Amino acid sequence: MLTISSTSQQLRWLCACYFFFFSILGTMIPYLGVFFENRGFNPQEIGFLLAILMATRIVAPNVWAKVADRTGMRSELIKMGAGAAMLAYLSFFYHGGFVYMALSLALYTFFWNAILAQLEVITLETLGENASRYGQIRSFGSIGYICLVVGAGFAIGQWGTEVLPYIGLVLFTGMLVCALPLPANRAVRPQGQERQPLKWTKPIIWFMISAMLLQMSAGPFYGFFVLYLKQAGYTEAAAGIFVALGAMAEIVMFMFAPRLLGRYGVNTLLVVSIAMTAVRWLLVAFGVESMLLLGLSQVLHAFTFGLTHAASIQFVHRHFDASHRSQGQALYASLSFGVGGALGTWICGYIWGDGSGAVWSWVFAATCAFAAMLAVFFIPKDRAQAVAP
């Protein structure tokens, strides 16, 4: 059993892990499209490559979750995933063709996707009855995202897109260093106790459908947001500032999320957040020329990801028992960010075309978000909807 001091120490290392994990996202997600474009890939190839980044979340988290739930080796998987991903990422330095880059992405993301689901489970189990503090811990990831999305934008503007692999390697190394002190607190079930199969209840099914559609709506944001802003006349540095504005709004929302969840419950907040997301994509589609409207669309990231993610994590933690928690987090990641993100990015690559269909990719995103909101209405309300503040 962890003491108060060891728990505090573990939470500090978890904060650092979140910082580096989402710093990597802040470097890769906004700028990979520009990176691939400068290496000579066309929009359809870029869409496919970015879809691989999402698609590995379909298989990899579930593979690692089965290992974690059966063995209890959660912190060990984080360490192994960080180390293997760092080594596999070295392949990014070679200027290979389309097939080479696709294999490179698939390899390093397979190991990288071993990390987040286990990180979420360890954090929530470490917090225990203080699970409402999750947002405070997770906000360090948003801070890392902000630092690197701005920093990488300026670095690319100064030295070009080939600086990206160097930044990424430093961040992967930092992730590994911060994961190494995590203790091996294995949660293995008692001998002879059978592990019950996962039950796909109605709330879980509709929640997963909604999460998948929501991440489909984020397809153009993940893959083409910086390209879209460049097309509208903004620089990479300016694009980085806009993305960072969204992450800052997300941090603020994480501070208020426990109180909002305690007062309104998961279902209500999901409906409101996803509706705001649909509005956000329409603002991006038709207000890109206005810095005010574009800035407002990024502030709405507080709902698109901040409040939606906080509510979703609580939903998963509540609806999956201890023997299936890694699997629950993995399913959430794989079906939403994996299936949804991959489909959304891939489809938007075709809608985008030569750039003439850019606006319609955001209209497609708003339509997906609206469908995700409708799916939430089919989730039966839980008796314990609220989370204690």
UniProtKB/TrEMBL annotation:
<feature type="domain" description="Major facilitator superfamily (MFS) profile">
    <location>
        <begin position="203"/>
        <end position="389"/>
    </location>
</feature>
<dbReference type="InterPro" id="IPR026032">
    <property type="entry name" value="HcaT-like"/>
</dbReference>
<feature type="transmembrane region" description="Helical">
    <location>
        <begin position="77"/>
        <end position="94"/>
    </location>
</feature>
<dbReference type="Pfam" id="PF12832">
    <property type="entry name" value="MFS_1_like"/>
</dbReference>
<protein>
    <submittedName>
        <fullName>Transporter major facilitator superfamily</fullName>
    </submittedName>
</protein>
<keyword id="KW-0812">Transmembrane</keyword>
<keyword id="KW-1003">Cell membrane</keyword>
<feature type="transmembrane region" description="Helical">
    <location>
        <begin position="331"/>
        <end position="353"/>
    </location>
</feature>
<dbReference type="GO" id="GO:0005886">
    <property type="term" value="C:plasma membrane"/>
</dbReference>
<keyword id="KW-0813">Transport</keyword>
<feature type="transmembrane region" description="Helical">
    <location>
        <begin position="100"/>
        <end position="119"/>
    </location>
</feature>
<feature type="transmembrane region" description="Helical">
    <location>
        <begin position="290"/>
        <end position="310"/>
    </location>
</feature>
<keyword id="KW-0472">Membrane</keyword>
<feature type="transmembrane region" description="Helical">
    <location>
        <begin position="46"/>
        <end position="65"/>
    </location>
</feature>
<feature type="transmembrane region" description="Helical">
    <location>
        <begin position="163"/>
        <end position="183"/>
    </location>
</feature>
<feature type="transmembrane region" description="Helical">
    <location>
        <begin position="359"/>
        <end position="379"/>
    </location>
</feature>
<dbReference type="InterPro" id="IPR020846">
    <property type="entry name" value="MFS_dom"/>
</dbReference>
<feature type="transmembrane region" description="Helical">
    <location>
        <begin position="264"/>
        <end position="284"/>
    </location>
</feature>
<dbReference type="GO" id="GO:0015528">
    <property type="term" value="F:lactose:proton symporter activity"/>
</dbReference>
<feature type="transmembrane region" description="Helical">
    <location>
        <begin position="12"/>
        <end position="34"/>
    </location>
</feature>
<dbReference type="InterPro" id="IPR036259">
    <property type="entry name" value="MFS_trans_sf"/>
</dbReference>
<dbReference type="InterPro" id="IPR024989">
    <property type="entry name" value="MFS_assoc_dom"/>
</dbReference>
<feature type="transmembrane region" description="Helical">
    <location>
        <begin position="204"/>
        <end position="225"/>
    </location>
</feature>
<keyword id="KW-0997">Cell inner membrane</keyword>
<feature type="transmembrane region" description="Helical">
    <location>
        <begin position="140"/>
        <end position="157"/>
    </location>
</feature>
<keyword id="KW-1133">Transmembrane helix</keyword>
<feature type="transmembrane region" description="Helical">
    <location>
        <begin position="237"/>
        <end position="257"/>
    </location>
</feature>
<dbReference type="GO" id="GO:0030395">
    <property type="term" value="F:lactose binding"/>
</dbReference>
